[in-house]
Each structure stands twice: as structure tokens, then as C-alpha cells.
Write a structure and sequence with these properties.
Elements (H helix, E strand, L loop, with lengths): L1 H4 L7 E5 L7 H9 L3 E5 L13 H10 L3 H11 L3 E2 L6 H8 L8 H8 L14 H9 L3
Parallel strand pairs: 1-2, 2-3
Length: about 140
């Protein structure tokens, strides 16, 4: 909101932590309402919370013969979230692109909603200890 209010040009893209465990539903809605494209930072939660062993994501993947990574990328895409996953391995890059030959059902999309903890997997600017640490490290 600060960027929109205090600048002549509205940002075209906002990259924020977005993955199944931190879905950013309200910020995403706000950005859509203001024509700002949301881009996922950390679409795979940097491997945290056992994302690549998650039973729900695995079972959804099995229905479509897809990997957990493909399910997550498809879920983001269906939500209108841009995701640019990082990989140096050709096989993973190919796997990441292979998400356009299936669509997650409404039931699968709803089930993935249940994974949302509504908290960052990395930091919380509302946590006094984190704010203090950031200040001490001049970040």
C-alpha cells in the first residue's frame, strides 16, 4: 500500500514469500484488486516443513502422475501467482515446465488451502525477537 500511495507508478510485480504453508491469501487479494502481479518467493518453502515429503501433496501428485514440485507449481499457477523456481539441474527444469498438461480439481485446491499456517517459514517482522535481531545485524 505504501508504494501505491506514495509513488506515481504502481508496482507491476510484488515478490513475496508464497507457498502452500504461507499462502498470502489477503495480500494476494489486495494485489489483484490493485493490478499488481504477485510473484512467489520461495515457491517450495526452501524445502522447509517437509514439503517434499508432504502426504497431501504426494497423494494429489499421485492422482495426476506428477511430483510434489509439479503440484505446487500448478497450484501457484492456478491461483494466478507467478513462480520462477530456481534449479541448476536440467531434469528439474524440465519437470518444472511440465505443469501445463493437467489442472488441479477444485477439491485439490481446497485441500491445499488447509496446509496454510499463515506464518512465514523464514521470519516474522511482527516477532519482537526477529525485529531486534534484524536491527542488531543492520538488515
Amino acid at each position: 500500500m505504501d508504494l501505491i500511495v506514495h509513488n506515481e507508478i504502481i508496482p507491476a510485480v510484488n515478490q513475496i514469500e508464497t507457498h502452500p504453508f504461507h499462502q498470502q491469501i489477503q495480500p494476494h487479494q489486495f494485489m489483484q484488486e490493485n493490478n499488481v502481479q504477485i510473484e512467489s518467493w520461495g515457491p517450495f518453502a526452501e524445502g522447509k516443513n517437509g514439503i517434499f515429503e508432504n502426504e497431501l501433496l504426494s497423494s494429489i501428485g499421485a492422482k495426476y502422475n506428477k511430483t510434489i514440485a509439479q503440484v505446487v507449481l500448478r497450484w501457484l499457477t492456478q491461483r494466478g501467482v507467478v513462480a520462477i523456481p530456481k534449479s541448476v539441474r536440467k531434469a528439474r527444469m524440465e519437470e518444472n515446465f511440465n505443469i501445463f498438461d493437467f489442472k488441479l480439481s477444485d477439491q485439490d485446491m481446497e485441500a491445499i488451502k488447509g496446509l496454510d499456517t499463515n506464518a512465514s517459514s523464514f521470519f516474522d517482522h511482527r516477532d519482537p525477537a526477529m525485529v531486534k535481531w534484524l536491527g542488531e545485524h543492520k538488515i
